[in-house]
Specification:
By secondary structure, the protein is of the alpha+beta class. Helix content is 53%, strand content 11%. It has three domains: 178 residues, Beta-Lactamase (2-Layer Sandwich); 168 residues, Orthogonal Bundle (Hypothetical protein af1432); 95 residues, no CATH class. Helix 6 crosses helix 15 and helix 10 packs across helix 11.
Length: 494
Amino acid sequence: MREEDLNRILKIGVQLSSERNLTQLMERILDCAMALTHCDAGTLYLLDKGKLHFKIMRNNTLTTLFGGDGREPLPPVPLERGNVCAMALLEGRTVNIENVKECRDYDFSGPARYDAATGYNTQSMLVVPMHNREGLKIGVLQLINALDKTGAVCPFDPDLVLAVESVASQAAITIQNASYIKEIRELFNSFVRVMSTAIDERTPYNASHTRHMVEYGGRFLDYLNSLAAAEGKEIPFSPEQKAEILMSIWLHDIGKLITPLEVMDKAARLRPDQYASLLHRMEVIRLSARIAHLTGQITEQEQKEVEQQTLKALELIDTVNTAEFVTDDLLSRLKTLQSRSYTDEKGNRRPWLEPEEAAMLSIRKGTLSDAERLTMEEHVLITQKLLSQIQFSGEFSHVPAWAGAHHEYLDGSGYPRRLTAEQIPDEVRIITILDIFDALTADDRPYKKAKTPEEASRILTIMAEKEGKLDPKLTHLFLESRCWEKDDAEGNLS
């Protein structure tokens, strides 16, 4: 074996151990084996459900490279002894054939059909099985047409067979490890999606929020990458960085698992028990007026006036209770209602509107009181606390911090830590924009009407350019991307 080949083998070991992407790993394995044996073509098969599946196929003469995209260029090979690749794997031995056209031991109808269709001439072949340390069958390396120094087809050098077997053995272990990593990652991703679904399904008013954010976020990151690529710049978000951001989005509301439903689902300013108590009180006032009329304490006209006033009071309360915003006029009418009183069954003077009820109805925007809003905002702290208990791998190390900062604003007015612009990375700025946009356009929120994308765009622009809460450049690019629009042919992002 030449020193050059020995050095190549050592380099192959380093290269294989450093590659984590399964597709790129398979391409590298085949490239390394072909370079080591100085051959013209090769195929890497992986065993799955009793068949050898074409994963990577390269042919230098035909300048073709297939595989790596999930599609297989040829039908899978059954694990039957008549086929040389299957035999090599079943018996765990390398097969070195000088000329397939003169070999009668195996079925070479497949290569013959390939040659007939492409004009290629398959001659020498080296088939090396791939097993892991435990002897588990992983796949097969099939190398075709070794070349001599002049470029002519020749048999594969027997001295290199052991070296290729060594590469195949290491490749099998590396492929299996990469497969294990992929399976573990998918298991973790599945768990994350289940947790996110549990959060959204916990309340009917939050059913699609996280999924929408992931979809918009995936498209927006792709858009930013496409802009950079069009300008000849390095893309800002690698596949690993994109996955980390999307993972942060999937988990950004996990703290809502702890948030009380009576706060998260609060559709009106008054709690159901408060509203029921108020309805009962209005009925008591009407009945008291009727009794007072029957006992001669007030006139019929005065009784009717009380009944009309209670109806108007309930109409006002119903309007204010679910209003998206309480105007000054509504507040003034509430104060007038507060000043009214009646005599209860014990002879005590009581207000038509209790102080706590008045305070709840006077909430200008939204349905939550200050105390309830603090309870709601605690979901971010709980998110950080829960995620801190998970041992995230290096590529997802930022997830707890990013997920727990999606309510921070550049001007320091956000929560929970009141971070300022220099403390908020671009990834969090993106998540915040996505969160606000979906919250504005969501049609399943009980306390507000859904905004149109155009209305939401204007609000985001104001928050970015006038209020200084959002990143102006990223906000502009987000709106420019229109990533909330989904093509009919586009599938869900994950």
